[in-house]
Design a protein that fits this description.
Helices cover 23% and strands 34% of the residues. The chain contains 4 helices and 6 strands.
Length: 151
């Protein structure tokens, strides 16, 4: 598996995920319409032009989903059981069409599961940055992780 098992996570370790992702207009429109989010700030160029931003914003839930998704290969691919929750999700700066997202993840804590001896809970902090190095998304995520299989 590409992902790490519970025992392999080190508190304080930061992953600088290698892949970046430029968000396109199509990404934003498709995500917004698939999720039935009709907010004109994401879909209507004329409406958005009259706002303080002057153009459409990328749907923040798309940004959040990409931030988590871009972390999976290095952290939880094939080794996670489930996400348990997201806390303190913030979007300090907006993303616009054509912005490129980069992601870092820090392991904040971990503990063995009280109910399952083959699993543990890992708390991550995910941070998304635009191409100017500005934080565009920050959140905490608790993941239910598999322990290494007994040999």
């Amino acid at each position: 598996m590409a992902g790490l098992y519970f025992e392999e996570f080190e508190i304080g370790h930061t992953f600088k995920h290698a892949l970046g992702r430029t968000i396109t207009e199509m990404d934003n429109v498709l995500f917004s319409t698939l999720t039935m989010n009709t907010q004109p700030l994401h879909l209507d160029a004329e409406f958005a032009a009259k706002t303080e931003f002057g153009e459409r914003l990328v749907n923040s839930l798309l940004t959040q989903g990409l931030v988590v998704g871009m972390s999976v290969t290095d952290t939880t691919l094939g080794t996670t059981i489930a996400n348990l929750g997201f806390d303190n999700v913030q979007f300090p700066k907006p993303m616009f069409h054509g912005d490129t997202l980069r992601v870092e993840t820090t392991v904040l804590g971990k503990r063995p599961s009280k109910s399952r001896p083959d699993a543990g809970i890992v708390e991550f902090e995910h941070r998304g940055y635009n191409q100017r190095g500005e934080v565009v998304c920050i959140m905490r995520r608790s993941a239910f992780m598999r322990c290494k299989p007994a040999r």
